[in-house]
Protein backbone atom coordinates (compact mmCIF):
# COMPACT_ATOMS: atom_id res chain seq x y z
CA UNK A 1 0.00 0.00 0.00
CA UNK A 2 2.92 2.33 0.51
CA UNK A 3 3.00 5.80 -1.03
CA UNK A 4 5.86 8.21 -1.71
CA UNK A 5 5.77 11.96 -2.23
CA UNK A 6 8.98 13.64 -3.41
CA UNK A 7 9.54 17.17 -2.09
CA UNK A 8 11.72 19.81 -3.75
CA UNK A 9 13.22 22.84 -2.08
CA UNK A 10 14.07 25.88 -4.20
CA UNK A 11 13.43 23.75 -7.31
CA UNK A 12 15.88 20.98 -6.35
CA UNK A 13 14.83 17.50 -5.17
CA UNK A 14 15.20 17.55 -1.40
CA UNK A 15 13.53 14.68 0.49
CA UNK A 16 10.84 12.02 0.30
CA UNK A 17 7.69 11.68 2.35
CA UNK A 18 7.01 7.96 2.77
CA UNK A 19 3.64 6.59 3.95
CA UNK A 20 3.68 3.05 5.32
CA UNK A 21 1.65 0.91 7.71
CA UNK A 22 4.72 -0.32 9.65
CA UNK A 23 8.46 0.23 10.05
CA UNK A 24 9.53 -2.55 7.69
CA UNK A 25 10.82 -0.27 4.94
CA UNK A 26 12.35 2.35 7.21
CA UNK A 27 15.96 1.17 7.02
CA UNK A 28 15.76 0.87 3.22
CA UNK A 29 14.95 4.57 2.96
CA UNK A 30 17.52 5.51 5.59
CA UNK A 31 20.29 3.54 3.87
CA UNK A 32 19.29 5.12 0.55
CA UNK A 33 20.55 8.40 2.00
CA UNK A 34 24.06 6.90 2.03
CA UNK A 35 24.53 6.75 5.79
CA UNK A 36 27.27 4.52 7.21
CA UNK A 37 26.69 2.29 10.22
CA UNK A 38 29.35 4.22 12.17
CA UNK A 39 27.26 7.41 12.13
CA UNK A 40 25.54 8.00 15.46
CA UNK A 41 21.77 8.30 15.85
CA UNK A 42 19.86 10.18 18.53
CA UNK A 43 16.13 9.48 18.60
CA UNK A 44 14.35 12.47 20.15
CA UNK A 45 10.90 11.72 21.52
CA UNK A 46 8.40 12.61 24.24
CA UNK A 47 7.28 10.69 27.31
CA UNK A 48 4.16 9.22 25.64
CA UNK A 49 5.95 7.89 22.57
CA UNK A 50 8.79 6.66 24.75
CA UNK A 51 6.36 4.51 26.74
CA UNK A 52 4.43 3.25 23.72
CA UNK A 53 6.71 2.85 20.72
CA UNK A 54 10.33 3.86 21.33
CA UNK A 55 11.62 0.34 21.93
CA UNK A 56 10.38 -0.88 18.58
CA UNK A 57 11.91 2.04 16.71
CA UNK A 58 15.21 1.87 18.57
CA UNK A 59 15.66 -1.82 17.81
CA UNK A 60 15.20 -1.08 14.10
CA UNK A 61 17.93 1.58 14.14
CA UNK A 62 20.08 -0.74 16.33
CA UNK A 63 19.96 -3.35 13.58
CA UNK A 64 22.19 -1.16 11.39
CA UNK A 65 23.78 1.69 13.35
CA UNK A 66 26.47 0.95 15.94
CA UNK A 67 25.44 3.69 18.35
CA UNK A 68 21.80 4.66 18.86
CA UNK A 69 20.81 6.78 21.83
CA UNK A 70 17.48 8.33 22.76
CA UNK A 71 16.47 11.58 24.41
CA UNK A 72 12.99 11.99 25.82
CA UNK A 73 11.18 14.94 27.37
CA UNK A 74 7.85 15.37 29.08
CA UNK A 75 5.04 15.39 26.45
CA UNK A 76 3.30 18.68 25.68
CA UNK A 77 3.80 22.20 24.36
CA UNK A 78 5.29 23.25 27.76
CA UNK A 79 8.46 21.37 26.80
CA UNK A 80 8.87 23.12 23.45
CA UNK A 81 11.43 25.65 24.64
CA UNK A 82 15.12 26.49 24.76
CA UNK A 83 15.60 24.66 28.09
CA UNK A 84 14.75 21.36 26.42
CA UNK A 85 16.94 22.26 23.43
CA UNK A 86 19.81 22.98 25.82
CA UNK A 87 19.40 19.61 27.53
CA UNK A 88 19.44 17.95 24.12
CA UNK A 89 22.62 19.85 23.11
CA UNK A 90 24.23 18.62 26.36
CA UNK A 91 23.26 15.02 25.62
CA UNK A 92 24.68 15.28 22.11
CA UNK A 93 27.94 16.76 23.41
CA UNK A 94 28.29 14.07 26.12
CA UNK A 95 27.92 11.40 23.43
CA UNK A 96 30.39 13.16 21.10
CA UNK A 97 27.89 13.81 18.31
CA UNK A 98 29.63 15.50 15.39
CA UNK A 99 28.52 16.90 12.02
CA UNK A 100 28.14 13.41 10.51
CA UNK A 101 25.62 12.28 13.10
CA UNK A 102 21.85 12.25 12.80
CA UNK A 103 18.80 13.27 14.83
CA UNK A 104 15.50 11.44 14.48
CA UNK A 105 12.31 13.28 15.51
CA UNK A 106 9.89 10.62 16.74
CA UNK A 107 6.60 12.14 17.87
CA UNK A 108 4.09 14.86 17.16
CA UNK A 109 4.67 18.44 16.09
CA UNK A 110 6.30 19.40 19.38
CA UNK A 111 9.02 16.78 18.95
CA UNK A 112 9.37 17.58 15.22
CA UNK A 113 9.70 21.35 15.67
CA UNK A 114 12.13 21.06 18.58
CA UNK A 115 14.29 18.36 16.99
CA UNK A 116 14.41 20.20 13.67
CA UNK A 117 15.52 23.37 15.41
CA UNK A 118 18.21 21.51 17.36
CA UNK A 119 19.40 19.87 14.13
CA UNK A 120 19.50 23.27 12.41
CA UNK A 121 21.66 24.81 15.12
CA UNK A 122 23.84 22.07 16.63
CA UNK A 123 27.30 22.47 15.04
CA UNK A 124 25.66 24.83 12.52
CA UNK A 125 23.46 22.03 11.21
CA UNK A 126 23.31 18.24 11.25
CA UNK A 127 20.95 15.89 9.42
CA UNK A 128 17.54 15.03 10.79
CA UNK A 129 14.79 12.58 9.91
CA UNK A 130 11.14 13.09 10.76
CA UNK A 131 9.01 10.19 11.94
CA UNK A 132 5.74 12.03 12.69
CA UNK A 133 3.26 10.12 14.84
CA UNK A 134 0.29 12.46 15.36
CA UNK A 135 -2.17 13.19 12.57
CA UNK A 136 -1.33 16.89 12.75
CA UNK A 137 2.39 16.29 12.43
CA UNK A 138 1.87 13.87 9.53
CA UNK A 139 -0.17 16.25 7.39
CA UNK A 140 1.21 19.56 8.55
CA UNK A 141 4.23 20.18 10.77
CA UNK A 142 6.62 17.56 9.35
CA UNK A 143 6.40 19.06 5.85
CA UNK A 144 7.80 22.40 4.80
CA UNK A 145 10.90 22.89 6.91
CA UNK A 146 9.57 25.21 9.60
CA UNK A 147 11.30 24.36 12.87
CA UNK A 148 11.39 26.19 16.18
CA UNK A 149 10.48 26.54 19.82
CA UNK A 150 8.41 28.86 21.99
CA UNK A 151 10.11 31.67 23.90
CA UNK A 152 8.61 33.00 27.15
CA UNK A 153 4.90 33.40 26.28
CA UNK A 154 5.54 33.71 22.53
CA UNK A 155 4.76 30.70 20.37
CA UNK A 156 7.31 29.62 17.74
CA UNK A 157 9.27 32.82 18.39
CA UNK A 158 12.71 31.27 17.84
CA UNK A 159 13.29 29.04 14.85
CA UNK A 160 14.79 28.28 11.47
CA UNK A 161 13.75 27.01 8.08
CA UNK A 162 15.52 23.66 7.94
CA UNK A 163 14.64 20.67 5.77
CA UNK A 164 14.64 17.03 6.95
CA UNK A 165 16.44 14.32 4.92
CA UNK A 166 13.41 12.02 5.07
CA UNK A 167 9.86 11.99 6.43
CA UNK A 168 8.71 8.44 7.20
CA UNK A 169 5.26 7.74 8.59
CA UNK A 170 4.08 4.50 10.12
CA UNK A 171 0.36 5.21 9.96
CA UNK A 172 -0.53 2.28 12.20
CA UNK A 173 0.81 4.32 15.15
CA UNK A 174 -2.32 6.48 14.86
CA UNK A 175 -4.10 3.62 16.65
CA UNK A 176 -2.66 4.85 19.94
CA UNK A 177 -3.21 8.56 19.29
CA UNK A 178 -5.90 9.92 21.66
CA UNK A 179 -9.18 10.56 19.81
CA UNK A 180 -9.21 14.27 20.62
CA UNK A 181 -5.75 14.64 19.08
CA UNK A 182 -6.98 12.86 15.96
CA UNK A 183 -9.91 15.27 15.70
CA UNK A 184 -7.55 18.20 16.18
CA UNK A 185 -5.54 16.94 13.19
CA UNK A 186 -8.79 16.71 11.21
CA UNK A 187 -9.05 20.50 11.55
CA UNK A 188 -5.94 20.94 9.38
CA UNK A 189 -7.08 18.24 6.96
CA UNK A 190 -10.50 19.79 6.38
CA UNK A 191 -8.65 23.09 5.95
CA UNK A 192 -6.58 21.57 3.13
CA UNK A 193 -9.76 20.57 1.31
CA UNK A 194 -11.42 23.95 1.80
CA UNK A 195 -8.45 26.00 0.60
CA UNK A 196 -7.30 23.81 -2.29
CA UNK A 197 -9.61 20.99 -3.34
CA UNK A 198 -13.36 20.76 -3.32
CA UNK A 199 -13.11 17.13 -4.51
CA UNK A 200 -10.99 16.23 -1.47
CA UNK A 201 -13.42 18.00 0.87
CA UNK A 202 -16.28 16.02 -0.70
CA UNK A 203 -14.27 12.79 -0.44
CA UNK A 204 -13.86 13.35 3.30
CA UNK A 205 -17.58 13.82 3.74
CA UNK A 206 -18.34 10.54 2.01
CA UNK A 207 -15.59 8.63 3.83
CA UNK A 208 -16.42 9.83 7.31
CA UNK A 209 -17.04 6.38 8.79
CA UNK A 210 -13.90 4.83 7.35
CA UNK A 211 -11.75 7.77 8.46
CA UNK A 212 -13.07 7.90 12.01
CA UNK A 213 -12.77 4.15 12.46
CA UNK A 214 -9.15 4.40 11.26
CA UNK A 215 -9.54 2.07 8.29
CA UNK A 216 -5.96 1.85 7.02
CA UNK A 217 -6.75 2.50 3.37
CA UNK A 218 -8.95 5.50 4.06
CA UNK A 219 -6.47 7.03 6.52
CA UNK A 220 -3.60 6.46 4.13
CA UNK A 221 -5.48 8.07 1.24
CA UNK A 222 -6.48 11.00 3.43
CA UNK A 223 -2.96 11.63 4.77
CA UNK A 224 -1.57 11.23 1.24
CA UNK A 225 -3.95 13.82 -0.26
CA UNK A 226 -3.27 16.26 2.56
CA UNK A 227 0.50 15.85 2.27
CA UNK A 228 0.24 16.49 -1.48
CA UNK A 229 -1.63 19.74 -0.86
CA UNK A 230 0.81 20.92 1.80
CA UNK A 231 3.79 19.83 -0.36
CA UNK A 232 2.52 21.79 -3.37
CA UNK A 233 1.98 24.94 -1.35
CA UNK A 234 5.37 24.90 0.39
CA UNK A 235 7.24 24.02 -2.81
CA UNK A 236 5.76 27.10 -4.50
CA UNK A 237 6.50 29.33 -1.54
CA UNK A 238 9.10 27.82 0.81
CA UNK A 239 9.67 30.98 2.93
CA UNK A 240 6.06 32.17 3.20
CA UNK A 241 6.26 35.19 0.93
CA UNK A 242 2.89 34.58 -0.73
CA UNK A 243 0.79 31.48 -1.34
CA UNK A 244 1.90 29.68 1.84
CA UNK A 245 -0.19 32.22 3.78
CA UNK A 246 -3.27 30.34 2.52
CA UNK A 247 -2.41 27.62 5.04
CA UNK A 248 -3.31 30.19 7.70
CA UNK A 249 -6.97 29.83 6.80
CA UNK A 250 -8.81 29.76 10.13
CA UNK A 251 -5.60 30.50 12.00
CA UNK A 252 -5.68 34.29 12.49
CA UNK A 253 -8.76 34.13 14.70
CA UNK A 254 -7.95 30.52 15.69
CA UNK A 255 -4.64 31.53 17.29
CA UNK A 256 -6.31 34.39 19.14
CA UNK A 257 -9.00 32.04 20.48
CA UNK A 258 -6.29 29.51 21.43
CA UNK A 259 -4.42 32.17 23.41
CA UNK A 260 -7.50 33.72 25.04
CA UNK A 261 -8.80 30.33 26.13
CA UNK A 262 -5.40 29.70 27.76
CA UNK A 263 -4.74 26.74 25.49
CA UNK A 264 -7.61 24.80 27.10
CA UNK A 265 -8.93 24.05 23.59
CA UNK A 266 -6.96 21.96 21.10
CA UNK A 267 -5.29 23.74 18.20
CA UNK A 268 -7.53 22.04 15.60
CA UNK A 269 -10.63 23.02 17.56
CA UNK A 270 -9.57 26.68 17.53
CA UNK A 271 -8.77 26.44 13.82
CA UNK A 272 -12.24 24.96 13.30
CA UNK A 273 -13.83 27.97 15.00
CA UNK A 274 -11.54 30.32 13.04
CA UNK A 275 -12.51 28.62 9.77
CA UNK A 276 -16.20 28.87 10.67
CA UNK A 277 -15.74 32.64 11.12
CA UNK A 278 -13.82 32.95 7.84
CA UNK A 279 -16.49 30.91 6.04
CA UNK A 280 -19.14 33.26 7.45
CA UNK A 281 -17.32 36.27 6.00
CA UNK A 282 -16.85 34.45 2.68
CA UNK A 283 -20.61 33.97 2.59
CA UNK A 284 -21.30 37.60 3.56
CA UNK A 285 -19.06 38.76 0.71
CA UNK A 286 -21.02 36.57 -1.71
CA UNK A 287 -18.18 34.14 -2.50
CA UNK A 288 -19.94 31.04 -1.18
CA UNK A 289 -23.66 30.39 -0.84
CA UNK A 290 -25.65 30.15 2.37
CA UNK A 291 -25.99 26.41 1.68
CA UNK A 292 -22.26 25.92 1.24
CA UNK A 293 -21.63 27.83 4.46
CA UNK A 294 -24.12 25.70 6.40
CA UNK A 295 -22.64 22.56 4.93
CA UNK A 296 -19.11 23.53 6.02
CA UNK A 297 -20.38 23.99 9.57
CA UNK A 298 -22.17 20.63 9.41
CA UNK A 299 -19.05 18.82 8.23
CA UNK A 300 -16.96 20.36 11.04
CA UNK A 301 -19.56 19.32 13.62
CA UNK A 302 -19.78 15.84 12.12
CA UNK A 303 -16.03 15.37 12.56
CA UNK A 304 -16.27 16.59 16.16
CA UNK A 305 -14.92 20.11 15.67
CA UNK A 306 -16.59 23.05 17.41
CA UNK A 307 -17.92 25.92 15.29
CA UNK A 308 -18.45 28.37 18.13
CA UNK A 309 -16.91 29.33 21.45
CA UNK A 310 -18.28 30.78 24.68
CA UNK A 311 -16.83 32.97 27.40
CA UNK A 312 -14.78 35.25 25.14
CA UNK A 313 -15.30 38.86 24.02
CA UNK A 314 -15.27 39.75 20.33
CA UNK A 315 -13.15 42.85 20.97
CA UNK A 316 -10.49 40.78 22.77
CA UNK A 317 -10.31 38.29 19.90
CA UNK A 318 -9.86 41.15 17.43
CA UNK A 319 -7.11 42.80 19.53
CA UNK A 320 -5.17 39.58 19.97
CA UNK A 321 -5.53 38.74 16.26
CA UNK A 322 -4.05 42.12 15.41
CA UNK A 323 -1.03 41.51 17.62
CA UNK A 324 -0.28 38.30 15.68
CA UNK A 325 3.16 38.40 14.07
CA UNK A 326 1.74 37.77 10.59
CA UNK A 327 0.35 41.27 10.04
CA UNK A 328 1.54 43.49 7.20
CA UNK A 329 1.68 47.25 7.83
CA UNK A 330 -0.88 47.02 10.63
CA UNK A 331 -3.36 45.10 8.44
CA UNK A 332 -4.43 41.54 9.04
CA UNK A 333 -3.78 39.31 6.02
CA UNK A 334 -7.06 37.43 6.33
CA UNK A 335 -7.67 34.25 4.37
CA UNK A 336 -11.11 33.81 2.86
CA UNK A 337 -12.77 31.36 0.50
CA UNK A 338 -13.28 32.50 -3.07
CA UNK A 339 -15.21 29.21 -3.39
CA UNK A 340 -15.19 25.85 -1.61
CA UNK A 341 -11.74 24.48 -2.51
CA UNK A 342 -10.20 27.84 -3.36
CA UNK A 343 -8.82 30.35 -0.83
CA UNK A 344 -7.36 33.84 -1.31
CA UNK A 345 -5.66 36.49 0.81
CA UNK A 346 -7.77 39.54 1.65
CA UNK A 347 -5.68 42.29 3.27
CA UNK A 348 -8.43 44.90 3.16
CA UNK A 349 -11.05 43.83 5.65
CA UNK A 350 -12.40 46.47 7.99
CA UNK A 351 -12.60 46.02 11.75
CA UNK A 352 -16.38 45.99 11.32
CA UNK A 353 -16.21 43.01 8.96
CA UNK A 354 -13.82 41.15 11.24
CA UNK A 355 -16.05 41.84 14.24
CA UNK A 356 -19.07 40.43 12.40
CA UNK A 357 -17.10 37.27 11.57
CA UNK A 358 -16.02 36.91 15.20
CA UNK A 359 -19.56 37.49 16.47
CA UNK A 360 -20.81 34.73 14.17
CA UNK A 361 -18.84 32.18 16.23
CA UNK A 362 -19.54 33.54 19.73
CA UNK A 363 -22.19 31.68 21.69
N1 LIG B 1 6.46 23.31 11.78
C1 LIG B 1 5.26 23.54 11.30
O1 LIG B 1 5.08 23.87 10.13
C2 LIG B 1 4.09 23.36 12.22
C3 LIG B 1 2.79 23.35 11.68
C4 LIG B 1 1.73 23.11 12.55
C5 LIG B 1 1.95 22.92 13.90
N2 LIG B 1 3.23 22.95 14.38
C6 LIG B 1 3.49 22.73 15.80
O2 LIG B 1 3.13 21.39 16.10
C7 LIG B 1 2.79 21.31 17.49
C8 LIG B 1 1.53 20.53 17.63
O3 LIG B 1 1.73 19.23 17.13
P1 LIG B 1 0.88 18.00 17.69
O4 LIG B 1 -0.56 18.32 17.61
O5 LIG B 1 1.39 16.79 17.04
O6 LIG B 1 1.23 18.05 19.24
P2 LIG B 1 2.15 17.11 20.16
O7 LIG B 1 3.47 16.87 19.57
O8 LIG B 1 2.10 17.70 21.52
O9 LIG B 1 1.36 15.73 20.15
C9 LIG B 1 0.07 15.69 20.71
C10 LIG B 1 -0.02 14.62 21.80
O10 LIG B 1 -0.18 13.37 21.17
C11 LIG B 1 0.79 12.46 21.67
N3 LIG B 1 1.08 11.54 20.57
C12 LIG B 1 1.62 11.83 19.35
N4 LIG B 1 1.62 10.75 18.57
C13 LIG B 1 1.08 9.74 19.30
C14 LIG B 1 0.79 8.37 19.04
N5 LIG B 1 1.01 7.83 17.83
N6 LIG B 1 0.25 7.64 20.01
C15 LIG B 1 -0.02 8.19 21.24
N7 LIG B 1 0.19 9.46 21.54
C16 LIG B 1 0.73 10.23 20.58
C17 LIG B 1 1.94 13.31 22.10
O11 LIG B 1 2.73 12.65 23.06
C18 LIG B 1 1.21 14.51 22.69
O12 LIG B 1 0.79 14.23 23.99
C19 LIG B 1 2.70 22.73 18.00
O13 LIG B 1 3.83 23.02 18.77
C20 LIG B 1 2.69 23.57 16.74
O14 LIG B 1 3.27 24.83 16.92
C21 LIG B 1 4.28 23.18 13.55
ZN1 LIG C 1 -2.56 24.78 12.42
Layout of SSEs?
Elements: E1 3-9, E2 12-20, H1 26-32, E3 41-46, H2 47-52, H3 54-62, E4 68-73, H4 82-94, E5 102-107, H5 109-121, E6 127-132, H6 135-141, E7 146-151, E8 154-161, E9 166-170, H7 179-196, H8 198-206, H9 208-212, H10 216-236, H11 251-260, H12 267-284, H13 290-302, H14 314-322, E10 334-339, E11 342-346, H15 351-360
Parallel strand pairs: 2-9, 3-4, 3-5, 5-6, 6-9
Antiparallel strand pairs: 1-2, 7-8, 10-11
Helix pairs in contact: 4-5, 6-7, 6-10, 7-8, 7-10, 7-12, 11-12, 11-14, 12-13, 12-15, 14-15
The structure holds nicotinamide-adenine-dinucleotide (NAD) and zinc ion.
Please tell me what the overall shape is: globular
Just give the CATH class of the largest domain. Answer: Mainly Alpha
Ligand kinds: nicotinamide-adenine-dinucleotide, zinc ion
- Indicate the structural class: alpha/beta
CATH homologous superfamily annotation of the largest domain: Dehydroquinate synthase-like - alpha domain
Head-to-tail CA distance between termini: 44 Å
**Count of all domains:** 2
User: How much helical structure, as a percent, in the residues?
Assistant: 40-55%
Work out the strand percent.
Answer: 15-25%
Secondary-structure arrangement, i.e. CATH architecture of the largest domain: Up-down Bundle
Give an overview in words.
The model has no long low-confidence stretch (mean pLDDT 96). This protein has 2 domains: 169 residues, Rossmann fold, CATH 3.40.50.1970; 182 residues, Dehydroquinate synthase-like, alpha domain. It has 15 helices and 11 strands. The chain is of the alpha/beta class and 363 residues long. Helix 7 packs antiparallel against helix 8 and helix 12 runs antiparallel to helix 13. The strands form 3 sheets. A 7-stranded mixed β-sheet has the order 1-2-9-6-5-3-4, sandwiched between helices. The protein has a two-stranded antiparallel ribbon with strand order 7-8. The site of nicotinamide-adenine-dinucleotide has 29 residues, from helix 2, helix 5, helix 6 and helix 7.
Amino acid sequence: MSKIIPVSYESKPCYKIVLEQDFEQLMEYVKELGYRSSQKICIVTDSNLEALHLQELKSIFDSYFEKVISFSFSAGEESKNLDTVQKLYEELIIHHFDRQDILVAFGGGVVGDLTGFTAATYLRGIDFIQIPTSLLSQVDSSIGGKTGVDFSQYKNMVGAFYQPRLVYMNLSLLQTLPKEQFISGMGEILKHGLIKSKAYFEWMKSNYEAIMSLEPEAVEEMVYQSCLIKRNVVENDPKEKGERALLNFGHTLGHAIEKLSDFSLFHGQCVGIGMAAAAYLSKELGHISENEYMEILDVFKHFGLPVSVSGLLAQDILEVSKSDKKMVAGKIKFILLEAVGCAYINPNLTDGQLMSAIESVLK
